[in-house]
Structures are given as structure tokens and as C-alpha cells.
Recover the amino acids of this structure.
């Protein structure tokens, strides 16, 4: 599936996704999958428990000691979507069931807003 985002928003999402992956690399994560980021394999959608719907995380990575991480990358424009918090909840439910963790990546200036949504 290809998203149809305006170029500026898509570039912002890609930049935030790359910055998130660089941060995780410094923390020892490896085996990255990134949603619609050239040069990286696509993460498989996960099936959200109870709701039985599929959600594709922005990234998936593995850490030898910490295990699997699902990442959500939210540019400022996506934080206004009503479904944003529900998507996070669904991915968090999957992560809990599979001994993984979910991490949300936003711009520094959007952290308070993201905490309110979470």
C-alpha cells in the first residue's frame, strides 16, 4: 500500500523515521524494517488483539537484550488525527501480547501533545 501524502509531509515523515532509526542504532537496535522508506524492508502488519484488525507500524527493530520494538513515527500533522491514539493503543496491545514494546517518535516540540494523546 502506498500512502498519498503531500510531498512536504512525506519528507517530514521520512526524516523523522530516519532520525528515529539512527537513535535506535546508537542504542544497539538492529534488523530494521521501515514502512515505505526506500532501502529498507517493509514491516509486516500486526493483528491487533480483540479487534482483529491489521496495523502496520512505521518501524520494527530488534535488540539482542531488549527484544522487538515497534515504532510509530508521527509528524505534527498526524497528531491531529482522531485515530492516532487508537492506533497507538492497538499496537501497544499487540506488543504486550508478544513481549515487545512500542515507542512513539515525535518532534521534540510535539512531546507534550503526544503524551496527552497517549
Amino acid at each position: 500500500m502506498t500512502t498519498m501524502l503531500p510531498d512536504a509531509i512525506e519528507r517530514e515523515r521520512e526524516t523523522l523515521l530516519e532520525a528515529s532509526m539512527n537513535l535506535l542504532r546508537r542504542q544497539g537496535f538492529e534488523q530494521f524494517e521501515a514502512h515505505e522508506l526506500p532501502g529498507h524492508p517493509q514491516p509486516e502488519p500486526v493483528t491487533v488483539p480483540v479487534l482483529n484488525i491489521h496495523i502496520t507500524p512505521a518501524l520494527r527493530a530488534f535488540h539482542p537484550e531488549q527484544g522487538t520494538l515497534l515504532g510509530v513515527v508521527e509528524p505534527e500533522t498526524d497528531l491531529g488525527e482522531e485515530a492516532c491514539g487508537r492506533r497507538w493503543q492497538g499496537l501497544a496491545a499487540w506488543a504486550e501480547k508478544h513481549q515487545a514494546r512500542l515507542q512513539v517518535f515525535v518532534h521534540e516540540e510535539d512531546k507534550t501533545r503526544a503524551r496527552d494523546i497517549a
The two ends are 26 Å apart (CA to CA). Residues 7-26 form the longest helix (20 residues).
